[in-house]
């Protein structure tokens, strides 16, 4: 797919020229036209330039789904700065890692969002992680007090930057503009770098593959800081159709939004879709043309029943930070592929020239259709690489350009596949891919804990983390204290829902090593969670 432009600034200009009054965003019932979005993002770019943001700078954007997130991204794209996307559910350890290891020069955040003490979280970040920061931008309501500095770094009000009278600098050309963070096979998240041209082309491919038209309206159910949320935004911006965003996902409010704005498309995890359909009144989904899911939770059958009753067409999806989400969706008509896979994650790749194959991890042989192996994908949406990590970049891509997904699945055609599960032990929690090592390392710093293994268990149809620990001699179990400490250090969805103390982890000796049998731990965790009296077993 070839586009006549390679930057978001050029694309905004084209949208304004074509339909200046078209609605680009709906943010908490405020409708923002493409003309207003361009004006606000250019004004913000001028304000950011005035305080010193320059091409190549790295800007950590720690905001929920709102107009300010989009404006900040577009302003950075205009300036040639790189956005490090930060999840608002992250806490001090995770923020420290992204800001510090990501070498952020600036930070944009919303101190009063959702009643969370973001200022306090930043205060808990060790100074060395903020040493590179030149300044902080705070989103605040008129008259709302904002601290003048964060650990000695000056704080600038977002509204003041928007109000600058300076002219925006000349738009920067195509360059790396967005980094998602993702957990791979190592203990630290990697920074997945995409440039403007790739993101724009992907948005156009999504809009075409999922059949956006003049009357389409897209609900952003997933956070813009992740690949699924950003792909949702990019598809809407590509077609110039409204994207409805809300800082906090609420199932009942989302169902109401669907009706009021005649939403046609949304993409979410199973839990969010089920919540919306349960909260909806008759007729709320009359405008729905396609809802996509990526099987982030196992409660699939119930979701299909609800969708059938609501008259909603569901399709399985696939995406990753490295390839961007919505890179594949299961076909709805036979001309696009095998429709029997409609309700399975994976899909037909949205690019006509993209290809998929499965490789046997033991023999290295490419497998025939229908046989399970590691999924490898050749797609124009492939990342530029892992930021500051060329070795990991080389290891992630085959010599002929296929991305090694680390996912188990099988192909149906050269463009269609079914995703089955992760090759490793990564967890999909609240829609985010999480490396259990991240959680284990935090638990192992807690009082009395000598070692930890975290597995994904099922609770009320949802995958949740469960921790098994070994104690230091003489130490006592403290599940309540451990839970509180984990919730203070990490996003809530990463905090283990239970702790069980073992004398030793179940293991088996292989030719090369002693391997912990995580499948046995998963079975134990599932059994404990099925009996509520065992959840805090010491």
From TrEMBL:
Keywords for the protein's UniProt record, in alphabetical order: Ligase
NCBIfam families assigned to the protein according to its UniProt record, in alphabetical order: PRK06164.1
Gene3D superfamilies tied to this protein: 3.30.300.30, N-terminal domain of ligase-like
Family annotation (PANTHER family): LONG-CHAIN-FATTY-ACID--COA LIGASE
Protein name: AMP-binding protein
Claim: Ligase is one of the keywords in the record: yes
Organism: Achromobacter seleniivolatilans
Lineage: Bacteria, Pseudomonadati, Pseudomonadota, Betaproteobacteria, Burkholderiales
Keyword Ligase: yes
Domain AMP-dependent synthetase/ligase: 16-387
């Amino acid at each position: 797919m070839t586009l006549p432009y390679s930057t978001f600034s050029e694309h905004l200009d084209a949208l304004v020229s074509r339909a200046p009054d078209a609605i680009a965003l709906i943010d908490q019932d405020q409708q923002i036209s493409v003309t207003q979005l361009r004006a606000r993002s250019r004004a913000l770019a001028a304000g950011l330039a005035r305080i010193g943001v320059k091409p190549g700078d790295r800007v950590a954007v720690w905001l929920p789904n709102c107009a300010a997130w989009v404006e900040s991204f577009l302003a950075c794209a205009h300036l040639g700065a790189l956005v490090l996307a930060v999840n608002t559910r992250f806490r001090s350890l995770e923020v420290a890692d992204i800001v510090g290891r990501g070498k952020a020069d600036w930070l944009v955040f919303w101190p009063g969002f959702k009643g969370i003490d973001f200022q306090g979280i930043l205060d808990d970040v060790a100074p060395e992680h903020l040493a590179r920061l030149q300044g902080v931008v705070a989103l605040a309501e008129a008259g709302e007090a904002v601290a003048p500095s964060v650990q000695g770094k000056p704080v600038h009000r977002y509204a003041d930057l928007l109000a600058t009278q300076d002219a925006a600098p000349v738009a920067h050309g195509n360059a790396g503009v967005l980094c998602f963070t993702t957990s791979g096979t190592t203990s630290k998240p990697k920074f997945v770098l995409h440039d403007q041209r790739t993101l724009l082309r992907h948005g156009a491919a999504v809009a075409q593959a999922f059949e956006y038209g003049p009357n389409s309206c897209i609900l952003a159910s997933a956070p813009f800081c992740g690949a699924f949320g950003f792909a949702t935004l990019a598809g809407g911006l590509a077609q110039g159709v409204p994207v409805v965003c809300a800082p906090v996902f609420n199932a009942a409010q989302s169902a109401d939004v669907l009706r009021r704005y005649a939403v046609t498309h949304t993409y979410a995890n199973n839990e969010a879709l089920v919540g919306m359909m349960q909260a909806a009144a008759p007729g709320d989904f009359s405008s729905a043309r396609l809802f996509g899911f990526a099987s982030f939770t196992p409660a699939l059958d119930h979701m299909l029943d609800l969708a059938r009753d609501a008259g909603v067409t569901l399709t399985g999806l696939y995406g990753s930070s490295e390839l961007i989400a919505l890179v594949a969706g299961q076909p709805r008509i036979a001309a696009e592929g095998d429709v029997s896979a409609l309700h399975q994650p994976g899909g037909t790749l949205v690019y006509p020239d993209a290809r998929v194959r499965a490789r046997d991890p033991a023999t290295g042989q490419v497998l025939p259709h229908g046989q399970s192996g590691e999924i490898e994908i050749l797609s124009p949406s492939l990342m530029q690489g892992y930021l500051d990590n060329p070795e990991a970049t080389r290891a992630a891509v085959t010599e002929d350009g296929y991305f090694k997904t680390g996912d188990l699945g099988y192909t149906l055609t050269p463009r269609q596949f079914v995703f089955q599960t992760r090759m490793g032990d990564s967890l999909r929690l609240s829609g985010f891919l999480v490396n259990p090592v991240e959680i284990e390392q935090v638990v192992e710093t807690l009082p009395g804990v000598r070692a930890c293994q975290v597995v994904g268990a099922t609770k009320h149809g949802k995958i949740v983390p469960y921790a098994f620990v070994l104690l230091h001699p003489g130490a006592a179990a403290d599940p309540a204290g451990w839970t509180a400490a984990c919730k203070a250090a990490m996003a809530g969805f990463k905090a283990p829902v239970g702790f069980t103390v073992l004398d030793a982890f179940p293991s088996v000796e292989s030719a090369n090593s002693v391997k912990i049998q995580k499948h046995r731990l998963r079975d134990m965790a599932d059994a404990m969670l099925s009996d509520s009296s065992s959840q805090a077993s010491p």
